[in-house]
Structure formats: C-alpha cells, structure tokens
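Researcher: Sequence recovery benchmark, item below. Answer with residues only.
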C-alpha cells in the first residue's frame, strides 16, 4: 500500500522531520512507522537541508515525501520518494540518502544545494534523479553508472565539472539524460553509444572537445538532441540521419572544417531545427520542406549559397525563420518570397545609408549626456532604426518561451547611472550600428548591468549569462559574464575600447554561443544584454573648417620640411629612411616628447627589462594608459633594419597571443616601439628569475601558457595573411599579462615567409639552446625552426628548469638531452617541476612532454605543424612522439652547429644577455646569435657563396 504525505501548511524543519520519521496514518489500532534506522537517516537528511519552508496549498504537487507501507501487514513504511522543488534549500546532499534503501525518486529541482553529489546514491534503486538548478560542484561520481534502474538523470544548470564518467554508459534503461549548463570537459565517452533507449539528451554550454561522435546514430529513439555551445568540432556526423524520431535538434558553434548540409531526410516530425554556426556550406536541401510540423528554423552564421527552397512555402506552422547568413549573395525563395510572420534577416556587410533628413529621435539625459532611447520591444529577426545615429538588428527566438520580452527593466535601485535600469536583450544575436560616422578613431564604451537575476542565496541567483562581443568584426570580449565582472547583480560596469572606423558605420555585435544557463530563473533568460552604448566622436567641425585646417597644416608641414632639408637635418640617413619607405604602417605615431614624459625621461627606475636590441621601459601616457617602450640601440647596424621589420610585421598582425603594438617613434637617433604593457613581465622571469620575481604557476596556468604560445605561433605560421617565422622563440620572448595569458613578443628577428616554404638564410638569428640544428648549421629556415624552439620552451614550462642552465650530469649539456634519457628509461614524469607536488595530471603532463620531444625531433620533416600541436594539446588528436635515442638523435649535428656559431662569434656575432633582472652569473636563456655566415657551394669544394635573403614587407 502506498500513499503520499503532502505538505500543505506552514511547517518548520522540526515538523517535517517528525512527518518523515513517522510517515504514518491510522488503520484501526495499527500505527504505521519507519524502521528505526531509516527514520534516523531521514532526520539527518532533513537536518542537512538547513532550512524551514513556508508551505501553502499550492505546494501540494511541488513538494512531497512518499512512502511504501506494504511491509509487515501494512505497519512498516519505507521512504520511496523525496520531492522538494523550488524551495531554496541551502544545505548539501548528505550521504545518508544512500541508506534509504527503497528510495526511487529524488527530485530537488530549483534549490540552492551545494557541494558534491554523494556516491552513496548508487546504493539506491532510483528511477529518477533530478537535481536541476542547484550549486552542486565536482565531478559526477562514476558509481552513478551502477544504478541499473535509472530512467531519468537530470543534472542541468549546476557547477559540475571534470570529464564525463564512462560508467554512465552502463545506464541502459536511461530515457532522459540532461547535462546542460555545467562545466564538463573532455570527450563524450564512447560508452554512451550503449544508451539506446534515450529519448532526450542535452549537453549545451559545456567545454567539451573532440568531434560529435558517430555513435549518436545508435540513439534511434531520440526525440530531442541539444548540443549548443559545446566547443566540439564538426562536421555533424552522417549517422544523424538515423534519428528519424527527432522533434527538436539544436547544434551550434562548431569548430573545425566545413561540410555539406547534413542528411535530415525522413525526419518528418521535426518541430525545431537549429543548426547555427556549424560551418555548413552549399544549398539548403528541399527536404526541409517535408518537415510538416516545423515551427522554428535557424540556419544562421553558416556559409550557405544558392536558392532558398520553395518547399518552405508549404510549412504552415513555420513562424520563425532566422538569418540564413545571406551576406551579399544572391539568394531567392523559389518564384515568390516566403510569407512568414517573421522573415529572413539579411546581415549587412556594407555601410548603411546615412539619411539626409533624419527624423526627430527620442532622447533621454543621463549625467549631463544625451542618449538616444532604445525602448522598442520588437521581436525576433528585426532591423530597427529610430534616427540617423543608431540602428540595431536583433535575431533569434527564445526557445521554450517564445513570449519572452526583448527588453528588460528593473524598478529597484541600481548601482550606477539611471540607464542601467533598462536593457536590451536578445536570444541569439544583437547588432548595433553607429551611423553617419567620419573615418577615424573612436572611444567606444559599452555599459552593462545584470538586472534579470537576483543577488541572494536563492534559485533565482544561480543564472549565468555568457556571451561574446565583437566590434568591427574583431572579438573584444569572449564568454563575457556581466555578473561576474561587475561583482554582483544590479551593478553597472563599463568596458571601453578604441576603435577605428574606415567607412561610415560602426558595428557592435553581441552574440550568444549557447553557454551559461537558459532556464534560470525562468526559461528564456539567456543571451546578450546591454544597457547603453557611448561613442566619443570628438568635436563636430564643418566641412569648410576641416578643409581650412587640412590646407593650413599642409602648408606648415611643407615649410618645415624645406627648412629641415636646408639645414641638413633630413640628410645623411638615406639608408634608414629607405628602409621605412613603402611600409604602410597600421600603427600610431608618438612624439619623443610624449615618450620622455611617459617614462620620466627614460628613468632607470622605469626600466623593466633588457631586450636584444636595447632596454625596455614602463611608461604612463597623459591619458593614463600604461605602455612598454622598447628603445632600440642606435649603435647596431642591424638595429634600423630590425626596427623596420618589427613595425611592418606587427602592424599587420592581431591575435590575443601576440603582444599588441600601439605605435612607434622615429626622431633623430631614437628608434622606439610602443607596446601594450604586460603586468607579469616575461615567462623567463616567472620560471627562472630571482626568488622575489618568480611566480607560483600551477598546472592549469602552465597549460594555459603553453596553449597560448602554440596558438600565437599557429597564427604566425598558418593563419595570418603574412606567413611569419619568428626565429627566436624562448622564455624571455614570451610575456604574461595580468591574467597570466601568454603573448609572444620581439618580432625584430622575424623572417617573412611569403611564397616559399623553404629558405636558405645567410643571416642566422636566434639563441643558443633554442635554435633548430638545421638552421644553426646550414641556415635552413622553415617554420619548423620555430616548432623546435617551442618544444624547448614547452619542456622548460613543464619542468620549471632552464634548457641551457640545468645540467643534472656533466655529460649533459642541455635539459633536452636529459629529457631524451628519461624518455628512453620510461621516466618522463621525472621531468615535471617538483614544486607542483602531486597537483597535476599525469596524463596531461605526459602529453605535454611527448609533444615537446616531438617538436624537437632532429629532423624538421618529422616535427608537427603548430596547428597540429594546438590540436594535440587540446586532446583533439593523439600524440605520437617517437622514441629518440641519444646515440641515434644526430646529437653531434646539434653540437657542431653551436660550435660553428661560437667560432664565428669571434668576428661577427653579437652576443647579448637576456636576463631582465640585472647581472647574474649566467644568462637566463643562453647567448643570442645574430650572424652572417658563408654557405659552402656543394658543387665547388674550394669556393663559397653568399646568398642574399632580404625581403621587403609590403601590404
């Protein structure tokens, strides 16, 4: 006999405990009670929930404790169900739950429970475990995979992390498996292919790796599949065609290579189809029109071409067709346009027109500034322009809550300006266009305040809103979390950017990539949110005034040039100036006066390092911007050439893992480069510097640094329009910002690799201990020389030791040689920095060390590309590091190379110390080589040739 005790009036923990302990009703004289042990455990569970509840009659369905009283002639009851939803329980999930041996249902949805999921739950015959919307953290206990009776496992919107246990693939009866809105990493285990009874699988918003597995084709009963914002790679596997019962399919934001539209033929019951930003190419298949129940179709941000099929006209239920990413392509819909409530949004790539007679706009004044109001509650796929200054484009529909508003408002006080009380929101993409702008530089301020979550310890405060922001097509904020950045709810925060406008339109794009929560406090609360935008355009001048200023300035400049020429100040430097000619530098120019003021006339107190071509100073400009100034030595003949190289190349390169160049200064004998200032100096100082300068780098930080360097090099070698070989990758040329992100610096030694893949260079530039043997000996230069140097740096980061200064035994010259020995003996983990203790992953450390050895292979052809290195580090492809024995490793070639350079340095090699911390007995990384050598002519044994390898950098 089973029955339910519903909580229908105001009760306290004490009363609920009493209810759970007795769980009784009267049948004559027989009282029904819980067994003593089970009653004690139930009381402990209630105690751990740490709260009292105010119940009303509306809680009858949401909260109950159910018992089975069929034992001992209906006198003994066992707890079979604990269902307490939406009551903000603030305790933990106690392990005592595992002692309620008849418990089948645990539903604690939308509370505030924290800590981890107890493994003792595996002792229970659970059919339903629902913990959606709590603060649970840590990994999923592998023991959960032993609950063979489980039908529903709902863990959405928590803080769970780590890899997914393969044991969960044992849950053969599982029907619903919901994991969205957590922090899971790694690949989806192959064992999940055994879950052939799944009807609902959701894993949105986790940081997974690898490709979408082929085994999803085994889930033939599936009706819903959600994989938005998972960071996985495409393409969508062909086996998806087996899922004929799908009604909802959502996949977005895949990386990797492009592919054709997946085969969805036969999916007749589809209602919502979202394949956003999945690198899909080609045309939209006509069989989409056979999905008679289709209501929502989102194919935005793909690479579609051709015509929109006319069969879509027959979809009577389709009321939302979001952007098909038309982008200047001629796409047509059959013979006539589709008649939808909301039609296609065509993204604009050209400048928007500037109206001659703008309408009067609605404005509001905040803190003395006038703002154009943006209060229109327009829906999905809308382009709206209220005046001549601003327009916006909003796309997307709130899945699960199509009636959700597109503006937000809060009546309570907000910490900040008045405009933080309102905000525009969008489910997917929100673009703002600043219109009628002149070409030039603008200061753009984006104002944010999270006003849709609460800031207390309740379920309403568990929401996480993450989105990206790009300006003029460049991502400036990634996975931006307003509440986290501002330090709470209802607090205003400003993010400021300097932006160049080359046309007449400024584009600000806020974009949701499927990350964060999507159902807290209600369904449909997610996506980008912004309160206000400020653009400082400077003073407005009439066309006549501008013309007068330009003409007057030109006259003055011409007169000054004539005077300087007559006085000889423009002569005598033809070589230097000729090197600067032809370079269209995309940088700013600073005067020497500005730089002297910023550095206090190059005060030694502001000196932060010593580069290969001169000192580096910290400076503060008049507007408060902190900069780093590299002062190139005028004594070196190579100085001007390297200066020109560095300006030209860096001005054309923009990447998060490259040091940003703000500008330059060329006055007299001063050659200056002005960079962004990086708070944590160089990687060399962090690893090998003096004790007071060393940083405690945990394993996750070291991984992040390694991956950052690899991504920066992959960009230089393969992704940028210019193919660049750095030639001097080492720890001193890697700088760390305040968040310990790695940025590659010092492109003065970089070599432009325009068309060819292989070069013989007569100018050897690099650092002993980091140079690839083929480059050091023969001047044979490819991007694989950088790969070799990266391998050495990777080894240093993992071991915490300098390649050139660490000698465990006399017969070993470099750390790399010792690594080969450890590899032969199967003791690679002996190389891991002892300061890490046991706080690192053996698997990850071995992967990094094997990558380092693979990169330092004596043969350049056997070294991987940097893009492959990135994939190996991310676990996307396996690492195949060959065993390199010292006696077979061509070590003599390496030593001959360095010996050759050392001999050559007696006459024409510049050697510099790179220890930015001042004098030391040994250099941090070894001697830097910058040499011109003669290469033997293989056809004439008694002659030599000098091959010129100079290239001019042009846009």
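Model:
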């Amino acid at each position: 006999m089973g029955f339910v005790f519903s909580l229908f009036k105001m009760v306290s923990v004490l009363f609920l405990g009493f209810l759970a302990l007795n769980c009784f009703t009267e049948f004559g004289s027989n009282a029904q009670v819980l067994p003593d042990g089970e009653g004690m455990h139930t009381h402990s569970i209630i105690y751990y929930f740490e709260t009292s509840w105010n119940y009303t009659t509306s809680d009858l369905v949401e909260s109950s404790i159910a018992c089975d009283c069929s034992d001992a002639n209906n006198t003994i009851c066992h707890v079979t169900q604990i269902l307490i939803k939406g009551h903000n329980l603030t305790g933990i999930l106690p392990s005592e739950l595992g002692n309620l041996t008849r418990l089948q249902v645990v539903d604690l949805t939308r509370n505030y429970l924290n800590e981890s999921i107890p493994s003792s739950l595996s002792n229970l015959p659970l059919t339903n475990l629902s913990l959606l919307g709590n603060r649970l953290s840590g990994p999923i206990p592998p023991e959960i995979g032993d609950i063979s009776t489980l039908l529903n496992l709902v863990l959405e919107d928590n803080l769970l992390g780590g890899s997914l246990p393969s044991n969960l693939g044992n849950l053969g009866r599982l029907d619903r498996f919901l994991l969205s809105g957590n922090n899971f990493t790694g690949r989806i285990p192959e064992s999940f292919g055994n879950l052939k009874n799944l009807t609902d699988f959701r894993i949105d918003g986790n940081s997974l790796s690898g490709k979408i597995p082929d085994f999803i084709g085994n889930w033939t009963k599936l009706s819903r599949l959600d994989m938005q914002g998972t960071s996985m790679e495409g393409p969508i596997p062909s086996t998806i065609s087996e899922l004929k019962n799908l009604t909802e399919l959502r996949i977005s934001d895949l990386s990797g290579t492009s592919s054709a539209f997946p085969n969805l033929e036969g999916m007749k019951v589809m209602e919502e189809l979202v394949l956003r930003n999945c690198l899909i190419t080609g045309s939209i298949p006509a069989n989409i029109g056979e999905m008679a129940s289709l209501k929502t179709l989102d194919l935005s941000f793909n690479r579609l071409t051709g015509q929109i099929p006319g069969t879509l006209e027959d979809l009577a239920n389709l009321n939302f067709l979001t952007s098909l990413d038309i982008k200047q392509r001629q796409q047509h819909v059959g013979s006539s346009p589709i008649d939808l409530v909301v039609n296609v949004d065509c993204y604009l790539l050209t400048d928007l027109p500037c109206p001659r007679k703008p309408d009067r706009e609605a404005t509001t004044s905040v803190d003395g500034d006038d703002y154009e109001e943006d209060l229109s509650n327009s829906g999905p796929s809308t382009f709206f322009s209220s005046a001549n200054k601003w327009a916006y484009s909003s796309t997307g529909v709130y899945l699960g809550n199509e009636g959700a508003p597109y503006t937000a408002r809060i009546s309570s006080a907000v910490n900040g300006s008045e405009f933080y009380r309102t905000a525009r929101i969008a489910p997917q993409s929100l673009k703002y266009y600043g219109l009628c702008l002149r070409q030039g530089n603008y200061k753009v301020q984006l104002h944010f305040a999270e006003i849709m979550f609460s800031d207390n310890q309740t379920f309403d405060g568990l929401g996480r809103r993450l989105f990206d922001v790009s300006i003029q097509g460049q991502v400036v904020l990634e996975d931006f979390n307003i509440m986290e950045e501002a330090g709470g709810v209802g607090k205003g925060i400003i993010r400021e950017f300097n932006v160049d406008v080359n046309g007449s339109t400024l584009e600000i794009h806020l974009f949701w990539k499927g990350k964060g929560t999507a159902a807290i406090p209600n369904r449909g609360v997610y996506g980008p949110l912004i309160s206000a935008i400020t653009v400082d355009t400077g003073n407005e001048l009439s066309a006549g005034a501008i013309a007068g200023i330009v003409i007057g300035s030109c006259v003055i400049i011409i007169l000054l040039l004539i005077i300087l020429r007559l006085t000889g100040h423009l002569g005598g430097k033809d070589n230097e100036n000729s090197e600067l000619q032809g370079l269209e530098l995309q940088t700013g120019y600073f005067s020497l006066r500005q730089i002297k003021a910023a550095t206090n006339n190059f005060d030694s107190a502001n000196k932060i390092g010593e580069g290969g071509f001169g000192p580096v100073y910290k400076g503060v400009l008049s507007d408060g911007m902190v900069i780093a100034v590299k002062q190139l030595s005028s004594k070196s003949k190579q100085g001007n050439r390297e200066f020109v190289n560095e300006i030209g190349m860096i001005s054309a390169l923009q990447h998060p893992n490259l040091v940003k160049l703000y500008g330059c200064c060329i006055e007299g004998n001063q050659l200056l480069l002005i960079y962004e200032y990086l708070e944590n100096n160089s990687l060399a100082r962090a690893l090998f510097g003096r004790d007071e300068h060393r940083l405690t780098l945990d394993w996750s930080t070291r991984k992040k640094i390694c991956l950052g360097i690899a991504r920066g090099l992959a960009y230089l070698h393969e992704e940028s329009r210019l193919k660049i070989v750095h030639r001097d990758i080492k720890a001193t040329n890697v700088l760390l910002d305040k968040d310990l992100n790695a940025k590659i610096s010092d492109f003065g030694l970089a070599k432009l690799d325009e068309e060819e893949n292989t070069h013989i260079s007569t100018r050897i530039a690099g650092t002993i201990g980091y140079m690839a043997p083929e480059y050091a000996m023969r001047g044979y230069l490819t991007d694989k020389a950088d790969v070799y140097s990266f391998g050495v740096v990777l080894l240093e980061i993992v071991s915490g030791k300098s390649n050139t200064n660490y000698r465990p035994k006399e017969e070993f010259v470099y750390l790399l040689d010792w690594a080969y020995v450890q590899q032969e003996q199967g003791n690679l983990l002996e190389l891991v920095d002892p300061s890490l203790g046991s706080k690192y992953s053996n698997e990850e450390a071995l992967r990094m060390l094997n990558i380092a050895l693979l990169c330092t292979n004596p043969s350049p052809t056997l070294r991987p590309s940097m893009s492959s290195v990135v994939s190996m580090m991310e676990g996307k492809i396996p690492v195949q590091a060959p065993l390199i024995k010292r006696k077979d490793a061509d070590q003599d070639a390496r030593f001959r190379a360095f010996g050759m350079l050392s001999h050559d340095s007696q006459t024409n090699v510049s050697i510099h110390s790179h220890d930015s911390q001042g004098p030391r007995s040994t250099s941090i990384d070894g001697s830097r080589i910058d040499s011109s050598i003669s290469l033997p002519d293989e056809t004439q044994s008694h002659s030599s040739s000098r091959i010129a390898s100079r290239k001019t950098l042009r846009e």
